[in-house]
Amino acid sequence: MRVLGVDPGLTRCGVGVVEGVAGRPLTMIGVGVVRTPADAELGHRLVAVEQGIEAWLDEHRPEFVAVERVFSQHNVRTVMGTAQASAVAMLCAARRGIPVALHTPSEVKAAVTGSGRADKAQVGAMVTRLLRLSAPPRPADAADALALAICHIWRAPAQNRLQQAVALHSAQATKGRTA
Q1: Active site residue 39
Q2: CA–CA dist 3, 37 (Å, integer)
Q3: How many CB atoms lie within 10 A of CB 141?
Q4: What's the pTM value of the predicted model, to 2 decimals?
């Protein structure tokens, strides 16, 4: 499975591609940051994020896109920019028919470090170890994007089984009502 992780942001949007399956060593395919100037008009910044993500989709051809779920922060301006960049990433994937998964920061931290309260340094250290890198990816947005991709690879099998069980249950319930 090849996953593009996206840590959304208007100034720095982290992107990272990881390949592998749960229970096996994972491989980093690429990592980077899509940057936009803080003083640019919002519309131009969103177009730049879109072009950056489209370039990553073209180059790496992921099967899934994992995006950090936007959560409420104290700074409304920051959360709005994050939400807008997140929407751009989801739009780019949807346009190509690539499934999108949203993961909360605490889910990602728990999956990668074992603690949903891990700090950025701990996430970076575990990403470095799990992907057998010589140094943590910089900036932290890049490491967070890789962590999102790792989280999705590890969580996807369980999520798929759960979705299949729910679908089967719904089908059986519908069949029981029509009999």
Answers
A1: no
A2: 27
A3: 25
A4: 0.88
